[in-house]
Amino acid sequence: MNSDSTAFTTHVDREIASQPDIWRKVAAIAPSFAGLLPAHGERVAAVGCGSSWFMSMAYAGVREAAGHGETDYYAGSEFNYERKYDRIVAISRSGTTTEVVDLLAKTKLPSVVITAVAGSPVTDHATESIILDFADEESVVQTRWATAALGLLRAHNGVDLLPLADQAELALASDLGELPNVDQISFLGRGWTIGLANEAALKTREAAQFWAEAYPAMDYRHGPMSIAQKGRCTWAFGEIEKKLEEEIIATGALFEKSEWDPMVHLIRAQRVAVAIAKKRGLNPDQPRGLNRSVILS
Ligand code: F1P
Prior knowledge:
With 297 residues, the protein is α/β, with parallel strands linked by helices.
């Protein structure tokens, strides 16, 4: 692929652009799944791998902040089988990711899986399944799947997705400015947006083999901020402390923040990841060394 060809349209471009419509569909069907998702007060563990892990992380923050109950999150490989939970919420687009399939097969706890593929192995082992097939993707890199799954869980925790879908149209049309030209990005979040920061960093690594990191905003001061400088970017999802913002700007780094809902702001990060990939002559649909699903032998 030619390194100056930035105009080609990939699956991930189309999938990013479909998010407003996907979120509207999720908003419409969310009430019908309410009975399958954790009830108020239940003790919950959210699990997944890769993007699905970061959406689990974000969901845990959303649910706790909404006051619906203790919610832990785990990478599929790191589940703590000694802990007692009322329900496991598993996220897996493919439904075939080994660590998630194995976890659901091993646990005796009630579970609900959110997957794009009906009849996939996770559905054989989970107590309940929620199939969001309309949010499945052609690209290996997840974008709309991740926000559809998180959107469903946010809707279940009282968030109205319809205004967010309208805001998403603005994020899709927004000018990326200098963002695709920076040589490093550190993504920051607080509470549930730490999951989004991790997801944004994963997008740039997968799609563009680009150096990105992610931190809880206040911990960024404890060392990682030393790499901030002109030509690099620090990106905040949601509100961060004013003093921290001033310190970041003083480093000369490009500072990115938004008034939009943080999940809407993630769309802009997805677009930046794709733009950087294209600038580098990479096909963002085909990350190096990654398949649609990681299946361990
Ligand atoms: C999880 C995952 C993704 C990654 C890639 C391969 O898949 O590891 O995070 O970006 O798409 O699969 P899944 O369990 O959600 O199918």
